[in-house]
Amino acid sequence: MSQKGSRQEKTSSHSTELYTEVPSTCLPIVYSPDYNITFMGFEKLHPFDAGKWGKVIRFLKEEQLITDGNIVAAREAAEEDLLVVHTRRYLNKLKWSIVVATITEIPPLLFLPNFLVQRKVLRPLRTQTGGTIMAGKLAIDRGWAINVGGGFHHCSSDKGGGFCAYADITLAIKFLFERVEGVSKATIIDLDAHQGNGHERDFLDDNRVYIMDAYNRYIYPGDGYAKRAIKRKVELDWGTEDPEYLQKVELHVEGALNEMRPDIVVYNAGTDILDGDPLGGLAISPQGIIKRDEIIFKAARGRQIPILMVTSGGYQKRTARIIADSIINLNNQGLVDCDCAAREAGPSHVPLMMSQSVSAGT
Ligand SMILES: [Zn+2]
């Protein structure tokens, strides 16, 4: 199902490190150890597992789905890359620790000199942002791509919030529109528990982008202005469970893709819909999350529409295991082709032993 060969790159406005050629032996799974935020115990002050990205990779390696050598190393988005969407005014504001403390919801950051905030918090987020942009191009080339981080859907060109400092989804789409021939329409399917007001504000009144958003209607951000950008709004109640949720997701993703056929689907696969999440307020099981991801990949890949997945919110201790299990399930279902790429890598690579069943996340 993968589409071989890059499409022609359009003449670009600035030269970027994020669109360099990737060897065909690499899987379109993007990650860097630099994603993980760990320093001086501050990460414990935010109600999240700030090392979840590295754990997803560890689990995928344990299952022999990937190796260090066959995934794509994310690069940090440079200032020029960020300026494709962000205003200089906004990027300058991030030079104030208090602004970053507010955006990331880690109050003690305000006491740190900005060079440390840049190095320990913003650089990881910029690397994840670079990863989403890279994965966008890979999705077009290969038919699918997964950035193990990213999904900062509360950030727009001029405003961050809710842990989101850079608008990686908007950036990935704008890069594709500007640089890749034949990509002029995108659909965002945002299934994080929160409303994706960042990309919604960025694409208000932009008919090239179709947004479907399913979220808990009672929680942050409740951005009524941004909601005008949503073509398919699925507002959920407290404690929504698997049957209702999965039925709505399937109905609306099919509807969305039938209504407009995009050149790329950007899937914001937040796992804060998980039962017990302190922020999401929904009650979806690990199996429900795995099924949800399968539904979205089936809908996109069945129509041969390239899909880019980012992992977004969800930071419980068991979240990383569920994300890894979901990627394993996608591979078992033939919706991503991890084993194909390994075979192409040649005889020096040991054939992968794929586990046939999804190991339980709980
Ligand atoms: Zn969220």
UniProtKB/TrEMBL annotation:
Single GO term (MF): histone deacetylase activity
Enzyme class: hydrolase
Stretches assigned to the Histone deacetylase domain: 46-327
Compartment(s): Nucleus
Membrane-spanning residues: 96-116
GO biological process, one term: epigenetic regulation of gene expression
UniProt keyword list: Chromatin regulator, Hydrolase, Membrane, Nucleus, Repressor, Transcription, Transcription regulation, Transmembrane, Transmembrane helix
Xref: Gene3D superfamilies: Histone deacetylase domain
Enzymatic reactions: N(6)-acetyl-L-lysyl-[histone] + H2O = L-lysyl-[histone] + acetate
UniProt-listed Enzyme Commission number(s): 3.5.1.98
GO cellular component: histone deacetylase complex
Quaternary structure (record): Interacts with HDAC6.
Entry's family note: Belongs to the histone deacetylase family.
Function: Responsible for the deacetylation of lysine residues on the N-terminal part of the core histones (H2A, H2B, H3 and H4). Histone deacetylation gives a tag for epigenetic repression and plays an important role in transcriptional regulation, cell cycle progression and developmental events. Histone deacetylases act via the formation of large multiprotein complexes.
PANTHER family tied to this protein: HISTONE DEACETYLASE 11, HISTONE DEACETYLASE HDAC1-RELATED
Protein name, UniProt field: Histone deacetylase 11
Organism this protein belongs to: Lepisosteus oculatus
